[in-house]
Design brief:
single chain, 12 strands, alpha/beta
Length: 339
């Protein structure tokens, strides 16, 4: 199978326009990420993905379908609780919490796969902290051991459905106040504090993750570059020390924290040189086009580094979903929301 291009892009609406059709045909493009603006109904989503597959059957289609406040497809989809709500159940009843985590992972993944979406960038593996403006209830817990246990159950559910998991935001975004969407966060804790807490979660789960997404956060006690641009974090700690062999996705290079590296081309170059396999450029068509043009002229980069993130063939996914192979309590998940 021909390796995929290194760039993941987005689209503006519920269907493809001519410019977007042209973009996703390019060798430099290997992925498409969908947002809430791209979803109107189940049939529309099926039609959209069908039109994408008609152009590029090999492209990775992704979405952020974490649950809670980050769930891009809502209408007619199971209403997923936040990971923090799953964590609260676990604290009251560990067995029930683990079962609920598994079921939520399965439901989330199976629904997406049924419609042809390959991956959800989930689960969030950051540690929960009241100081964080962007993570908060997106995390299972502030305790590494709890995050590890619940994440393994959640990932197991995803895998059972046929989807590989992508943990984020390596090595941990949960303890800094700043939101990397709007500014560059700096985590000034000691190396020991980071490596013995946040990093441990990724270290323990590296063996069951298909992908990892680094944070646009600087950890100056370890490296002066944000993790997503850092040789130290990606090549040394993630690849060498943890032996992680999966796909490394950059976080969106159009986020404010990523822009500190310079032009769109410079950001792409830094992320790829640091060891990212696929780079995301979202909500800025001009930047995505600039990166694509650069990749198209750079020998060795345009062919990308990965072949797929699909764990199970689409035909098997649909059959599995329709037969409800795994016993789940969709009604309980769909109605579960704490005040």
């Amino acid at each position: 199978m021909k390796p995929l291009g290194a760039l993941m892009v987005d689209i503006s609406g519920a269907s493809l326009d001519l410019a977007e059709k042209d973009l996703i045909q390019r060798d430099s493009v290997g992925g498409l990420i969908l947002f809430s603006r791209n979803y109107e109904s189940p049939q529309q989503l099926m039609d959209l993905i069908g039109s994408v597959r008609a152009i590029r059957d090999d492209i990775i289609i992704a979405v952020d379908q974490e649950g809670g406040r980050v769930q891009r497809f809502r209408e007619s989809f199971v209403k997923l609780p936040s990971l923090a709500q799953i964590g609260e159940i676990f604290e009251r009843d560990a067995e029930q919490g683990l079962s609920f985590a598994s079921q939520c992972g399965w439901v989330m993944a199976s629904e997406l796969l049924y419609y042809g979406v390959d991956i959800s960038f989930a689960p969030v593996l950051d540690l929960q902290s009241r100081s964080s403006r962007v993570i908060g209830d997106r995390s299972f817990s502030g305790k590494p051991a709890v995050v590890i246990e619940l994440a393994r159950a959640y990932i197991g559910g995803m895998n059972q459905a046929g989807m590989r998991a992508c943990g984020k935001h390596f090595p941990g975004h949960g303890t800094v106040e700043a939101d990397s969407h709007t500014e560059l966060p700096i985590d000034r804790r000691s190396a020991n504090s980071i490596l013995n807490n946040d990093f441990v979660v990724f270290a323990e789960l590296a063996d069951c993750l298909g992908g990892i997404m680094p944070a646009h956060v600087i950890y100056p006690q370890i490296d002066h570059q944000p993790a997503g641009y850092s040789h130290v974090w990606i090549k040394e700690k993630l690849r060498k020390d943890l032996g992680f062999a999966g796909v490394i996705f950059s976080d969106d290079l159009s986020m404010e924290a990523a822009k500190t590296a310079g032009s769109p081309r410079k950001r792409a170059e830094m992320a790829l040189n640091a060891g990212c396999d696929m780079i995301l450029s979202c909500n800025d068509p001009a930047s995505a086009l600039e990166i694509s043009n650069w990749l198209e002229t750079e020998s060795g980069l345009k062919n990308g580094r990965i072949s797929s993130m699909r764990a199970t063939p689409a035909a098997e996914i649909k059959k599995l979903f329709e037969e409800q192979k795994w016993s789940i309590n969709v009604e309980a998940i769909n109605s579960f929301y704490m005040d």
